[in-house]
Amino acid sequence: MEDAFRDRPGVPHSTDRHSTSGEGSMFGGIGAICSAAVRLTGADGAAVCLLSHSSQARELVYATDATAQHLDELQFVIGEGPCIDAYRSGERQLWADLTAAHATAQWPVFAAEVTSLEVRALFAFPVASSRVPVGVLELYRGTSGHLGAAEQESGLACASAIGHMISTDLDRLADADPRDGTPVDGINPAGEEFSRAVIFNAAGMVAVQLAVSADEGLTRLRAYSYVNGRPIGTIAADIVGRRLSLRDQRDSREGQGR
Predict the structure, then answer these.
(1) What is the homologous superfamily of the domain 2-185 according to CATH?
(2) Which end of the chain has fewer CB within 10 Å, C or N?
(3) pTM
């Protein structure tokens, strides 16, 4: 069923590519913590993303496998899901069965799309830096089922360890470069493997094309990706490479309506 999802927006084509340990990247030790989280919670995979309250930016720092990467991309494109709720609320989100009625009511689009990944349970733990939420540790299982108390404590401990690591790295970065900013607002913490820099560059170009704000440019880009069933990274590359303009798409629709 995963093949059916590969052409959905935001999903990389190279689904057989597994992530590396992240050594040499700004947050190199996060991969080891993700592996520990998978082992200690009985999850099938994990990912860590950084988010920002000031914008729609979302950077994937690390993913243990293609499915974990797909889950993060899906929530990035459609703008809903347990990880987004965990970040906004600052509370863990424990969803033992994504096919249950309360899950489909909470996230109708996400719940419908995630079934093609054969993921049945998702657990999201907020990651905090200096007590401020900066991201999420996301764990998934291919089978439904609750996390036990010890497994939840392990998830919380791993999220806390990631938060401490991010705080340390950001402090080191601030000492080297005192410019104000957050990881998702201008720093690529993950290196080239998971970077969404081209997407944010394309969103800026869309904003200029449509005379809208940068956040609205990203919203339009995500919507275009989802409606057209194309990976957002592919569309972004076409826009940056000037092979596609959303202004042309808008003008074409307006012309057809006359």
Answers:
(1) GAF domain (3.30.450.40)
(2) C
(3) 0.69
